Every structure is written in structure tokens, then in C-alpha cells.
Amino acid sequence: MTNGSYRRKDRLIKEERHDVYKEKGKLTEPTLCSECGALFVNGRWSWKQTEEKANKVLCPACKRIADKYPAGYIEIRGTYFKDHSDEILNLIRNTEKQEKEEHPLERIMAITDEKDHTLVTTTGIHLARRIGEALSRSHQGDFSINYSEDENLIRGFWER
């Protein structure tokens, strides 16, 4: 190990992303969410029914709701929203309904009126993105999104 035959390569060891809402191992199938009734079967959550005796747990979406820990945030600002709030809120709820039919873990947690904006929180990142895109497509305005891979979190901002 002399004359350069040994080279030390310093490297950063990247930590594994840790999502406490992701199951550590594979769930026993079928597994039923004791809160919302979603069923884990064939490796994914769905709204299917089962006649078999099912293991019971809280699904990741219900855990997030219980912990009040959203994965998605959409801030809605501007006077346009104040003038069209009923129409926009219907669009948001319809977007959730469509997404939730296929993906039970994607749900709205809350729609809250803050001092200078309305905040929509979601259990999943995909629903938050879809809501922002639906607002932008239907009502134009400015939509931007920030995704934090470390936290598995998405923040969207829409204004008109």
C-alpha cells in the first residue's frame, strides 16, 4: 500500500429516505383499514370489498389524518378566488373525488381559510399536484410547485 497503491475515496453516504407512513414490510393480504374501509390486496390499497377475514390496521392516509401531518399543501391566493370560491372549491372536491376513486390514499385533509389565503392540505403529493394543475387549467392564474424529496412533501401555490 505504498506509492499510491492505496487511495482513500471519501464519499458521502446517502441516508435512506425515511417515510414513517410507508409500511416497513409487506402487509398480510387482505388488510382492511379500520377507519376508512380501504382494502390492501394485490400489493395496493383499493376500495374493493372482501369476503375473507381481513387483518385490520390504519392505512397511511388515515394515519396522516390522525397525526395532522399532510404530504401536500396548496395555497390559494388572490381576489379571483374570493369572487369565485364556490366554483373553485367544487373543482377541488371533484378533483379529489376522481383521484380518490383509483387511489384511496390520496385525500383532502382540510380546507382552511387563513388570513391572506386558503390552504388545502392533502394526504398525498399526487392529489396536491393535480389540484394545482386543475386550478391552472380551469382558471388560469399562476401555479408553482415545490417538491421536497427528503420529506416526501409537496407545496403548491396558485394565485389569480
Summarize the structure.
The protein has 160 residues and is an alpha+beta fold.
Could you please describe the fold and organization of this structure?
- This protein has 160 residues and is of the alpha+beta class.
- A five-stranded mixed sheet has the order 6-7-5-9-8. It has a four-stranded mixed sheet with strand order 3-2-1-4, with no helix packed on it.
- It has helices at residues 60-67, 79-83, 85-102, 125-139, and strands spanning 31-33, 39-41, 44-46, 55-57, 72-77, 108-113, 118-122, 142-148, 153-159.
- It has four helices and nine strands.
- The protein has two domains: 31-58, no CATH class; 66-159.
- The protein is globular, with a radius of gyration of 21 Å.
Query: Using DSSP, what is the number of strands?
Result: 9
Q: What is the string of helix and strand elements?
A: EEEEHEHHEEHEE
Helix content: 25-40%
Mean pLDDT: 88
Total individual domains:
2
Strand order of the largest sheet: 6-7-5-9-8
CA-CA gap between termini: 66 Å
Radius of gyration: 21 Å
User: Beta-sheet strand percentage?
Assistant: 25-35%
Give the low-confidence spans: none
**Structural class of the helix and strand makeup?**
alpha+beta
Q: Which quaternary structure do these chains form? A: single chain
Number of H/I helices: 4
Biggest pleated sheet: 5 strands, mixed
Shape: globular
